Amino acid sequence: MEVKMPLMVILGGGESGVGAALLAKAKGYTVFLSDRGLLQETYRNMLLQHGIPFEEGQHTEEQILQAQEVVKSPGIPEKAAIIQKLRQKNIPVISEIELATRYTNARLIGITGSNGKTTTTLLTYHLLKTAGFNVGLAGNIGDSFARQVLENSFDFYVLELSSFQLDDMYRARMNVAILLNITPDHLDRYEYQFQNYTNSKFRILQNMTPDDTLIYYQEDPVISKELTDRQPAVQVRPVSLIGSPQPGAYLNDGLLVLADGHQPFQANMAELPLKGRHNAINMLAAISAAQAVGVGPEALHRGLMTFQNAPHRLEPAGEIKGVQFINDSKATNVDSVYYALESMTTPVIWIAGGLDKGNDYGQLAALVREKVKALICLGKDNQKLVSYFADRVPALFETQDVNEAVAKGLEWGKPGDTVLLSPACASFDLFRNYEDRGNRFKEAVKRIMN
After folding, report:
1. 115 known member of a binding site
2. What pTM was computed for the model?
3. Is 118 within any annotated ligand binding site?
4. pLDDT tens, 256-272?
5. Which of 30, 115, 124, 320 is the most buried if burial means most Cβ atoms within 10 Å?
6. Among the CATH numbers 3.90.1300.10, 3.40.50.720, 3.65.10.10, 2.60.40.10, which is that of 7-94?
7. 116 annotated binding-site participant
């Protein structure tokens, strides 16, 4: 008699969903993948090749509600009708991260925060890789964690974790967790309650033990308050820009200092490829995590010196007639723009705009007054930006064309100025995503250069 294996349904057929489907099938589940959109050809072929049944363009409720367990794409909101029906039937809904952690004994370094996650994750991975560690990179970046667990045998994984991924994690345990900052973001997914979003971020600590290490930015008021209230039973390693925690990591007169009593470490920020105070936090967190798993001082220094950040994060896009162009398209909230403007040492022509996510521009007022000589609004609806900044900047221009925005930036710029694309908004009004926006900005700069 044939034994029917438990049904695992995968909702969403992107990188994480297809990876989860492959792992689930390899572990003996009956698997069915469902995506309301159309699958990319690569993923469709992968599912066909492995004999995994799937549907696209719809969710067949009758089949999905037969599942013993569901793996949900982080892009599907809790309020989606199919998720609500799963909840009503008490069918467990988990993330790809939760599934993959069941099948690996690797040590896990998890990184979250409203800003700086990707840079810190890439740097932490680079520090371990440079030191010769057998390490994978996954989560909200790179290849599917589940597929890597299936196909590789890494000793370590560095995971970028969004709040949406953390929401569907229950038994996963991080050996090292980094909490960079918590500022309002994605509140439409959290009933517009900041505490709900904060609680989501703090799920990174669940299941951690006194043998595990939490690295956090000491000056973040939300994190500090929550840690005081929660008192987690973990080893804590604060990161600070104004104090000198012992043990911990801090910035002291331009030096990154790691103080743990065993292998002290220092590096001069002026010599390193990442610039700005926000990147000091990211670097201090990354070197703290790397040291926590055994990376020594020489390897830390070598890794810091050779790191190249991901595109669209304060990325140099070219220079024309002495005017620098910087692509910071990933800055989709006010907090990211604050860090970008703070790191500027030259007069700025600021390009901002897009889909506003409920931004409060008040926290930028002083920096804009100090640093910005002109504002170019690049978006379909610039009303909120214009009404707030019209009286706060010497010059303002509106456009829906990135080529026109770049041309106006060059027209207004003088040698030594910087034209900074740092939008503070989502990109979906004029572009496919923030990468598309950044790439088209860079192309516009190159066209003029050529």
Report:
1. yes
2. 0.84
3. yes
4. 999 976 778 999 999 99
5. 124
6. 3.40.50.720
7. yes
